[in-house]
């Protein structure tokens, strides 16, 4: 790892150092010709920082950092005009990125397929996905257990065609020229599956409406 990393070798185990070096190499191959080693390592290490202070599973930190760094680099490539595929990008934001925004992401990804892109984030990311939300989505055949609470960053917000906010209030980022929608939905935090089901169903309805407005064909 480079000397510009915010981590010293004393901060990381040997396994974590190796995992981050491997992650940097993978990202380097993926973004070859777009971003250099210094940029990739900076995004990887700052992504690691986002999770280091609140993760309950330290061994997963390099994997989370790699996934988040990849998303951030993809967003940056769109902002800087390196990647133009014409697909709309929707960013779902809530407080903990554990319930509402994750359900919206799940529905959007299932219904849009590869015809549009969706990301999610939180103003105060939690440590795990809401279990009632996971169960409610499983009832609809959508598995969101592979997702994880994460923050948002400027490049992710700037890359979005539409930013959908759900209860993050004044903490939600505002960038001129970006379309914003606020969905007033109950927070599933601490609720039972029975309470979450109506929220889930309203989210699906709104996601379908949004996809129709974006002229994205819905998967059958």
UniProtKB/TrEMBL annotation:
Domain spans labelled Phosphotyrosine protein phosphatase I: 88-213
Source taxon at top rank: Bacteria
Regions annotated as coiled coil: none
Keyword Nucleotidyltransferase in record: no
InterPro entries tied to this protein: Phosphatase-like_N, Ptyr_pPase, Ptyr_pPase_sf
One Pfam family of this chain: Phosphatase-like_N
NCBIfam families: MSMEG_6209_Nter
Name of the protein: Putative arsenate reductase ArsC
Species, as recorded: Virgisporangium aurantiacum
